[in-house]
Amino acid sequence: MPERLAVGVDVLAEHDAVARANRARFEGAGVLAINLLSSPGSGKTTLLTRLLARLRGRMPLAVIEGDQQTSRDAERIRATGVPAVQIVTGTGCHLEAPSVRDALAHLPPLSGGVLFIENVGNLVCPAAFDLGEGARVVLAALTEGEDKPLKYPHLFRTADLVVLHKSDLAPYLDVDVERLSGHCRALAPSAAVIVASSRTGEGLDAIEGWVLDRRRG
Amino acid sequence: MPERLAVGVDVLAEHDAVARANRARFEGAGVLAINLLSSPGSGKTTLLTRLLARLRGRMPLAVIEGDQQTSRDAERIRATGVPAVQIVTGTGCHLEAPSVRDALAHLPPLSGGVLFIENVGNLVCPAAFDLGEGARVVLAALTEGEDKPLKYPHLFRTADLVVLHKSDLAPYLDVDVERLSGHCRALAPSAAVIVASSRTGEGLDAIEGWVLDRRRG
Questions:
Q1: Residues 6+ apart with CB under 8 A from A212
Q2: Of A60, A186, A211, B111, which is least surrounded by CB within 10 A?
Q3: Distance from CA of A213 to the nearest CA of B (A)
């Protein structure tokens, strides 16, 4: 994003002001807003549907979906019964705070609940954009190899939780999960690291517990 | 990349002029320059090492590697005996024509050969940046699911070849390869689509043949 510097201070200052306003709004209503980030195809939406099925009926829930094109993800979320708004970014490579603010107008009140914001699949650009979230969850699928944290450190450094996803495929891969976890811990020492599979259910109790703790928190 | 519009016409015009100069230089020397693009972790570097092992000794070869951080990929390429230059983009999300021009100064002459340019792992931003390449190869790992072309159409539309990679994992996935191929063909009707595995060797003959054909022009 070398262009970012050229955008001018005004636009960035405006974005940061909106992010602060979003955060104040979430905190004021006791809403945990989670910014969910990963490469394309790491399984963010699938994991989200599993978590929503576990949390539904226990607290207000909603989802904001970011994608370059299509509203397929929002449709998958709505099929779980949870309200979802899709932001189609066109050529845009990340979500921005003003889009999140505008999307909130299309969602029911969430006092005491959880808002999941699924960012555009991208390990680079979303790292630099504060949406006003209360926590960042970064997914890395085991199929992507061990070196992703090293090659895309900016994003991993900002993680509050790293989910090492698609663990059901581990037997068929050459990936060393311990080494991958170590890379994540080195970049984000205070982040939790959970190995998980949306298929087998491995790690989902731990992720659910992390979300509940963080919401109380 | 909404910022792109704000960068100002001068910078973009300069990039495009450098891309044109790169292309003229490649064409003048009979060099096929291939821009290799995918999500992080789709297996670009691994596929590249397989192709280099097949092509080495038959023509001049070189690789330019783009990554946010680390020179791991260039080291993996050099281990094959092929010269490689790493461009570390820092917070940058894509390669640009001037970096490619500058990297060429560190590589041997390539007359009649092939230059592989492995872009930053990103399905969004690199789509809009012409490096002066003669062909674009887009990788999509089967592990990323069927809908990536639909969700990131801008990049897939520019492909001359789509490689559906990691086919060895197909038995353990729910992906419908025919449907995925169909999405690619709908977006890039003149592109070749090859199902491949760097592990089992499936499709590597076809990719090698495609590169050789393309080099002959």
A1: none
A2: B111
A3: 30
Among the listed residues B94, B97, B98, B79, the one whose alpha carbon sits nearest the alpha carbon of residue B40: B94
Q: Catalogue the E-assigned strands of A68-202.
A: 84-88, 114-118, 135-141, 161-165, 192-195
Q: For A61-69, what is the mean pLDDT?
A: 95
Q: What is the DSSP string of B102-130?
A: HHHTTS---TTSEEEEE--S-SSGGGG--
pLDDT digit string (tens) for A6-37? 445 577 788 999 999 999 999 999 999 999 99
Q: How far is A13 from chain B (nearest CA, A)?
A: 14
For the record, the structure tokens of B182 come out as: 């169909």
pLDDT for residue B11? 76
Q: Which residues pair with B115 in a beta bridge?
A: B33, B62
Closest to B123 (Cβ–Cβ): which among A96, A121, A145? A121
pTM of the entire predicted model: 0.93
The chain A residue lying nearest B94, using CA atoms, is A1
On average, the pLDDT of chain A sits at 94
Chain mean pLDDT for chain B: 94
What ipTM was estimated for this complex? 0.90
Phi, psi for B185 (deg, rounded to 5)? -65, -35
